[in-house]
Design brief:
The chain is of the alpha/beta class and about 475 residues long. The protein has three domains: about 210 residues, FAD/NAD(P)-binding domain (3-Layer(bba) Sandwich); about 110 residues, FAD/NAD(P)-binding domain (3-Layer(bba) Sandwich), CATH 3.50.50.60; about 110 residues, FAD/NAD-linked reductase, C-terminal dimerisation domain (Enolase-like, domain 1, 2-Layer Sandwich), CATH 3.30.390.30. The protein contains 14 helices and 22 strands. Strands 1, 2, 3, 4, 5, 6 and 17 form a seven-stranded mixed sheet that branches. A five-stranded parallel sheet has the order 8-15-9-10-11, with helices on one face. The termini are far apart.
């Protein structure tokens, strides 16, 4: 065999898996279809979107809050071309970092489309059509996902665009229509809303962020409406048309009446779907399940010995950090260790401003399961640190078992919630009670005091500052 392990896909799941395999003494290779490493996350996903979110937030703060802070600015304007250039620099530096890690860990990198000839043979075809074959004892599929769309909303990459194309728009969309009120649509919609766009969200469900806690979704809805977002819930898109100078979206409202929306661009953000095209899975006998996912067992192994799959191509949340954890899990499993993953404690984050972060069960899930629970909430406007920074929108919500007081879920809408949520993840990993969280001394003034106060509120309604 040429390799102990071959990883197909160099996104966060793939490259982290490859590093851990190499650390554990396995001869490892990674195959990447594109010329740069990092997959969707680093190239056209997490990293570039956060770069633009930060840039747009600086502009929004300068134009809306600086005067209140006593900072006078004149003629602040957007240089969209430079904003895109900075984003590209961040992406390039991050992808170069992955290449450095491959070299450091002596991982062979093969560029081209990897496909199975049989369970131990992988063919690699480069962009010029030239192919070669390598042998491996084990293969880990980490090919990620791509933007999803439904009939009638097919992207043309001109006016009807996905999360990939919107990252390179060199002008602000004055009127942006977003199909889908999920994480991707809200984050990328926020970028343009902060820069002055009118953002019109069309959502099939009755609220944004389906699957997240309803209180958090309601709180973010209030925030985004203040930013200028318009929401059209219970609307089913029928078709999207490129009119030449813009787009026209036809939908049915909750009364089944036909309504139309017009804008400069339409961002199709109705989730993502597993990317398994061209892998030749049938040649290795790998079984699939619904929604185009690869079927795996609790150890992320397919029905074929020696073939595993992680990240967006298998069941579970499509999150970069979930893929990373799964990559480490499989690597350690192959090394004979006994790793563990707790899917209930994988946090989710929405990088709007304020951010939304959550871990554990939602109140809706606990109701459905018949669990007896209690809730503690604390509004950010009652927090000294939030008032000092003018980030008073949001709240923290702690849900605990009514009998044992064990923390079952934490949901927050707050500045820096993406960082704050780790306190809850750590506490829940050790099965802490709400009282445990409440008794931890938190520094003052900080945003994390809101977590302490929410935990106090869940502990016999003991919040101190409301």
């Amino acid at each position: 065999m040429d390799y102990d392990v071959v990883v197909i896909g160099s996104g966060p799941g793939g490259y982290v898996c490859a590093i851990r395999c190499a650390q554990l003494g396995m001869k490892t290779a990674i195959i990447e279809k594109y010329s740069t490493l990092g997959g969707t996350c680093l190239n056209v996903g997490c990293i570039p979107s956060k770069a633009l979110l930060d840039s747009s937030e600086h502009f929004h703060t300068a134009t809306h809050d600086f005067k209140k802070h006593g900072i006078d600015t004149s003629s602040v304007k957007v240089n969209m071309k430079q904003m895109i250039n900075r984003k590209n620099e961040v992406v390039s530096q991050t992808c170069d970092g992955v290449k450095y890690l491959m070299d450091k860990n002596k991982i062979d990198v093969h560029h081209g489309l990897g496909s199975f000839v049989d369970k131990n043979t992988i063919k690699i075809t480069d962009d010029k059509g030239k192919s070669k074959e390598i042998k491996t004892k084990n293969t880990i599929i980490a090919t990620g996902s791509k933007p999803n769309y439904f009939e009638g909303m097919e992207p043309d990459k001109d006016r009807i665009i996905t999360s990939t194309e919107i990252l390179n728009l060199e002008k602000v969309a004055k009127n942006l229509i977003v199909i889908g009120g999920g994480v991707i649509g809200l984050e990328l919609g926020s970028v343009h809303a902060r820069l002055g766009a009118n953002v019109n969200v069309i959502e099939f469900m009755d609220s944004i962020l389906p699957g997240m806690d309803k209180d958090a979704a309601k709180e973010l809805t209030k925030v985004l409406k203040k930013e200028g977002f318009k929401f059209n819930f219970n609307h089913k898109v029928q078709k999207v048309e490129n009119t030449g100078k813009g787009v026209k979206v036809t939908a049915l409202n909750k009364k089944d009446e036909e309504v139309t929306f017009e804008g400069d661009y339409c961002l199709v953000a109705v989730g993502r779907k597993p990317y398994t095209e061209g892998l030749g899975l049938e040649n290795a006998g790998v079984e699939m399940e619904d929604k185009g996912r690869i079927k795996v067992d609790d150890h992320l192994k397919t029905n074929v010995d020696g073939i595993y799959a992680i990240g967006d191509v298998v069941r579970g949340a499509m999150l970069a950090h979930k893929a990373e954890e799964e990559g480490v899990f499989v690597a350690e499993l192959l090394a004979g260790q006994k790793p563990h993953m707790n899917y209930n404690l994988i946090p989710g984050v929405v990088y709007t401003w304020p951010e939304v972060a959550a871990v554990g069960k939602t109140e809706e899930e606990l109701k459905e399961a018949g669990v007896n629970y209690k809730v503690g909430k604390f509004p950010l406007k009652a927090l000294g640190r939030a008032r000092a920074s003018m980030d008073i929108m949001g709240m923290v919500k702690v849900i605990a078992d009514a009998e044992t007081d064990e923390v079952l879920g934490v949901h927050m809408v707050s500045a820096r919630a993406a960082d704050m949520i780790m306190e809850a993840v750590t506490a829940m990993e050790y099965r802490a009670s709400a009282e445990d969280m409440a008794r931890i001394c938190h520094p003052h003034p900080t945003y994390t005091e809101a977590t302490k106060e929410a935990a106090l509120a869940a502990t016999d309604d003991r919040a101190l500052h409301i």
